[in-house]
Amino acid sequence: MTGFRFLHLADLHLETHFGGRPATRERLRRATLEAFEAAIDYAIESALHAVIVAGDLYDDPLLSLRTESLLARQVARLDEAGIWFVATCGNHDPGGPRHRSHRLGLETAADGARRPRVRILRDRHPEAVRVTDPTGEVVGIVVGAGHATETEAANLAERFPRVASGLPVVGLLHTHVSGAQTAANHDRYAPSGRADFERLEYSYWALGHIHARQRAVPDLPVFYSGNLQGRNPKETGPKGGLVVEARAGVPAEPEFVAFAPVRWERIRIDRLPNRPSASALVNSLVAQLAPRLGGAVALRIELAGETPLAPMLRSPDQLEGLEAELADRTGALEVQLRNTGVSRPVDRAQLAASPTAFAHALGLVERAAQDPALLDELAPAELAAVMHPDARHAYLRELLADLPQELIERSIAEPA
Ligand SMILES: [Mn+2]
Q1: Which of 16, 90, 195, 287 can bridge 56 by disulfide, Cβ–Cβ 3.0-4.6 Å?
Q2: Which run of H or E residues covers position 240?
Q3: CB neighbours (10 Å) of residue 393?
């Protein structure tokens, strides 16, 4: 017997208002829709039994009619292929009586007939949906509960029932699992924890809310699929859904399938050429970015390290010019350059030899660290009277420890 085969998606956030340049914003808006369409294609081609969505189908109740109609069209394609679509309400698409999710009409065909294989689970009390294959045989049970409002505070997971059926049982919920990776970046709506999942012998838990794909609870079949399309530089790498084959009484292992047409990459570069040449800098960045390119990619580059061009890299205009050139050279959809601490290279010997007050002070501080007599000369006389010489010297060395670096930075703070 084959199992219950379904695709777990979450956090589609259709119609998100993106940041970035206008062209990127438009590309990302289309990308979320394309990713959804690709997921539906995959479900149909693979003849899955169901597509289940763990909340946040759309980003905002002001969802445009165009996007709503695209959503309805994709759901209709599934239904016509005999595949179930079961979605639960999250904090962006809550299920309370006054909310938009009631007016989407996904459960109804154009001629007014009900689509029995399309279910939106809005209620805070879990409902069980018996999913059938095209012959009408029940292959699995999806149990889901929805958020009532944008700020659901109750633990909904603890309300899920034990289901004795001999069939694979799958929990579907938008929830903040405490202790999950990047949980701190997300609001604690419908909070849950290990004990809620451990007490039930479900084959799989399809969760949404946290956008980083992961097993949410160690050793249990509890998973976040992550969002379908990365929306900003924090949501990096391939994005898509989890395909699952669930069997009764056995914890299921999902497999990732990528659907997002655009990928965000966040890259730190701290090896910069030691030449005051813009083209050398650009060439070096392009070479270091090469392994992360390919496909439609948006880059966030964090620059650090040393370059003689450091003073120029503090100017937003200069960074913007470089962003445009890098986008051109790499073919990236968008390049965001951030200066996270670039400094000018320092030739210590040359600096020490230069006829400046900084150089003199630097020499003095460095010699004092090695020379107790000089330390005593620099110290206030009062100290000598109250401290043992060894303790006094250690204390003075500690006081001076950060000074050489500070003097170097101050001596090169101004452009040459
Ligand atoms: Mn959410």
Answers
A1: 90
A2: strand 240-246
A3: 18
Cα 262 to middle of ligand 1, angstroms: 21
Output the CA 210–ligand 1 centroid distance in Å. 7
Coil, helix or strand at residue 142:
strand
> Near ion ligand 1, which residues have CB within 5 Å?
56, 90-91, 209
Q: Which amino acid is at 125?
A: H
- Token match 């040359």: residue? 350
Residue type, position 338, single letter: R
Measured in whole angstroms, the distance separating CA 307 from the mean position of its chain's CA atoms is 31
pLDDT at 164 over 90: no
pLDDT tens digits for range 282-298: 999 999 999 999 889 99
- Strand-pair partners of 208: 174
For 145-210, list the strands marked E by DSSP: 169-174, 176-177, 191-192, 204-208
Q: Of residues 25 and 138, which shows the higher confidence score?
A: 138
Q: Say which CATH architecture domain 4-260 belongs to.
A: 4-Layer Sandwich (3.60)
Burial class (CB in 10 A: 0-12, 13-18, 19+), 232: middle
Distance between CA atoms of 307 and 274, rounded to whole angstroms?
Answer: 5
- Sequence spans of domains, the chain: 4-260, 263-343, 348-411
Distance 212 CA to ligand 1 centre (A): 12
